[in-house]
Amino acid sequence: LHELPPAFPWQSTHRLTLDLLLRRDIYMQGYPLGWIKPMWRRQFLLERSLRYPEQYRHAEDFYLLACALLEGAKFWLRSEPGYVYTLRQGPISGQKSPFSASRPNMENIAASCEDLLHRYSDRLCANQKRRLRGRVRRFLHGGALIEIRTLLTEPRVVAAVLHAVANPGGPALFAQLRFSALTGRLGFKQP
Hints:
Layout: E1 14-16, H1 18-24, H2 42-47, H3 60-70, E2 75-77, H4 106-119, H5 126-153, H6 157-166, H7 169-185
Helix pairs in contact: 1-5, 3-4, 4-5, 5-6, 5-7
């Protein structure tokens, strides 16, 4: 049996707050806290009518976790891994996982963040709203990047270029990811 690395960079028990969740759960950057699998108090969820949203097929864990935190839930994170999360695509090999049949819908994920902004507008501070709006933009840019990559593999180069021009956030996200990968290889710490 292989020893799993710590799930988080801290060694002691750590409280999860909405600010920490928004700071750490960034699409295509690191290991999002939205992937955690908390133990829930059923009564807490029932009293607040909280459940996994049927309308959001992807990032539903983040959505429910954010709702619970905004409803007053308290979560504590431990660094010991409790399960293994299977990615749709291997981060090193780039190969699709045989265990995942889903393809993320970035517009749907962005809509879930918009839903949080509207539903909890009175409970969110200005910084949390800014981070959620940034999350919306990043997922929309990710959707554009996925479409550009798909068009390039078909190969429909002209369509990919036109899509990139119409959706400059996709190429910008690609440049940011490449820059982050380069600085990581050179030993610079990511913010």
